[in-house]
Design brief:
With 567 residues, the protein is an alpha/beta fold. It is built from 20 helices and 14 strands. The chain has three domains: 274 residues, no CATH class; 35 residues, no CATH class; 154 residues, IlvD/EDD C-terminal domain-like (Glucose Oxidase, domain 1, 3-Layer(bba) Sandwich), CATH 3.50.30.80. It binds FE2/S2 (inorganic) cluster.
């Protein structure tokens, strides 16, 4: 045992007699067949999120063995422990509701159980932010290991990747362009391996953000899930975790700084990453006492070019991104705009990392240079205005250019149920130039801020060939989706924000160049409408949903719980 590591003596159970607690713990540990020699080693806990309800983590048993191999070979004892897993499409009403539950469980189980450091295994959308948020608050050394992206499938000679292509084909099916039999065949070819969604969605964005924050081994964020390098990265993560256990650091909260958060925001902008990632990064930063300011975000967006040509915005998939050099290439291209003194889990600065020789850039079309960007400005912007006084988010890179400056008549849906009931009605009064508005789908709403901001194009317009409209809500959007979609409108409708006051026929103006979103209704009229607003639905009275409802913060605050943020 090193002088720093305490191994099994970490955080002894309180019986009022420390020696008894140590004796009892060792005795029960021995019932699992450990020798005294093993129990005298530093301990690497492995926070393990395998689940039959999480397809993205299907290969975790193999990765776990590789992590353990690395830990054992480096003189520490690996002890896996189960953790809540959040499989994106298996949770109702939405995985977002459970991110904070998982973050709380991660924090408490790292703190409560005897370990000197922790390997955090995750990947599917909400698991990475939950793991990092919890570990930052737990204040123990830790390192993240992600699942890696899925490989693409094939259908009639075309490459398919979950889940941008899922949406494209579904839109064609709704428009009557492909048959039910075809959509069944496509269903079996969209997600064909383990790993996270194959495009620059939330999981991939969060993996790149985590590596940029320094909480993961360099060059590991985008290794495909099924590649042998993924297992080698797992073993190396185990080796590093053992070293961290023996040396006593670094802790994740020491790596999350204002500079590393700004670097991560720049990477997010340059890869045209997921809008969800802004919420998650705000929550991670918030755990370290750092605020993500939307005005500053817009400054960064105006300076940071889009360098990556991947779906849902462009044409490539994550496997192409990795082959083209992965995050390392992006960091090298962005280096003049980054703060290079930030540190990572290996103890090196970003500057030291980038001084190492890089592999040859194979595909200049997938990852471009500062001199030859995909777009000269970042893929995401924050909007403010009379409809969103505290902010909203638009993925301008995923929008139809002609809709970025648009004024239109509101067609309002008061809830997800209302949307489902009327969106395809032949009687719906809607034109292609209208603005679709969804209310009461924000963090405090009963739906828990689902990825419903990608409102479907009304069937009669879809059949007429309409592919995009301005759509506005307090909901989120899947990182794999695209369109002219304004999200995270704050204050949300459930709290009586201006979004709750929009009525059919109101004019709404979006200006991406001015970064504004305005409801063109007089303040006097809005005051009258406010006085007649119906009360919000009765909040949950028990259990986690009550805690959630009582404590959830707004989207710009990362949708964390108010009592989990320092201060
Ligand atoms: Fe797990 Fe997309 S469903 S990352």
């Amino acid at each position: 045992m090193s002088e720093i590591a305490k191994g099994l003596d970490n955080d002894l159970t309180n019986y009022g007699d420390q020696d008894f607690a140590r004796y009892l713990r060792r005795s029960f540990a021995k019932s699992m067949g450990y020798t005294s020699e093993s129990l005298d080693k530093p301990i690497v806990g492995i926070c393990y999120t395998d689940s039959g309800f999480n397809n993205c983590h299907r290969h975790f048993p193999e990765m776990l063995e590789a992590v353990k191999r690395g830990v054992l070979a480096s003189g520490a004892l690996p002890i896996p422990f189960p953790m809540i897993s959040l499989g994106e499409v298996f949770l109702s009403p939405t995985s977002m509701v459970y991110r904070n539950l998982m973050a709380m469980a991660v924090e408490e189980m790292i703190r409560a159980q005897p370990m000197d450091t922790v390997v955090l295994m995750g990947g599917c959308d909400k698991t990475v932010p939950a793991l990092v948020m919890g570990a930052v608050s737990a204040g123990k050394p830790g390192v993240l290991l992600v699942a890696g992206p899925m490989m693409t499938g094939r259908y009639k000679g075309e490459r398919l990747g979950a889940c941008t292509d899922c949406r494209r084909f579904w839109a064609q099916y709704r428009a009557g362009n492909i048959s039910q039999q075809e959509i069944y065949q496509i269903e079996g070819n969209l997600a064909v391996t383990s790993g996270t969604c194959a495009v620059m969605g939330t999981a991939s964005s969060m993996a790149l953000i985590a590596e940029t924050l320094g909480v993961m081994l360099p060059n590991t964020a985008s290794i495909p899930a099924v590649h042998a390098d993924r297992l080698r990265a797992s073993e190396q993560t185990g080796v590093l975790a053992a070293k961290m256990a023996i040396q006593g650091g670094p802790r994740l909260d020491q790596l999350i700084s204002k500079d590393s958060v700004e670097n991560a925001l720049r990477v997010l902008l340059s890869v045209s990453g997921s809008t969800n990632a802004i919420i998650h990064l705000s929550a991670i930063a918030g755990r370290a006492g750092i605020e993500v300011d939307l005005e500053r975000f817009n400054e960064l967006s105006d300076e940071t070019p889009v360098l990556v040509d991947l779906k849902p915005v462009g044409s490539g998939y994550m496997e192409d991104f990795h082959t083209a050099g992965g995050l390392d290439k992006v960091l090298r291209a962005l280096a003049p705009q980054l703060t290079l003194k930030t540190l990572d889990v290996t103890g090196r600065s970003l500057e030291q990392r980038l001084q190492e020789e890089s592999s040859e850039q194979i595909d200049q079309n997938v990852i471009r240079t500062l001199q030859n960007p995909v777009e000269s400005k970042g893929g995401l912007i924050a909007l403010h205005g009379t409809l969103a006084p505290e902010g909203a988010i638009l993925k301008r890179a995923a929008a139809t250019p002609t809709l970025l400056e648009h004024e239109g008549r509101a067609v309002v849906f008061s809830s997800l149920e209302d949307l489902a009931a009327r969106i395809d009605s032949p009687e719906l009064d809607v034109e292609a130039e209208d603005v679709l508005v969804l209310q009461n789908a924000g963090p405090r709403s009963p739906s828990g801020m689902p990825e419903a901001g990608y409102l479907p194009i009304p069937k009669k317009l879809a059949k007429a060939g309409v592919k995009d409209m301005v759509r506005i809500s307090d909901a989120r959007m899947s990182g794999t989706a695209f369109g002219t979609i304004v999200l995270h409108v704050t204050p949300e409708a459930d709290l009586g924000g201006p979004l709750a006051l929009v009525q059919n026929g109101d004019l709404i103006r979006l200006s991406a160049s001015a970064k504004t979103i305005d409801l063109l209704v007089s303040p006097a009229e809005l005051e009258i409408r406010k006085s007649t607003l119906l009360p919000a639905p009765t909040p949950p009275s028990r259990g986690y949903r009550k805690l959630y409802n009582d404590s959830i913060l707004s989207a710009p605050q990362g949708c964390d719980f108010n009592f989990l943020v320092p201060g």
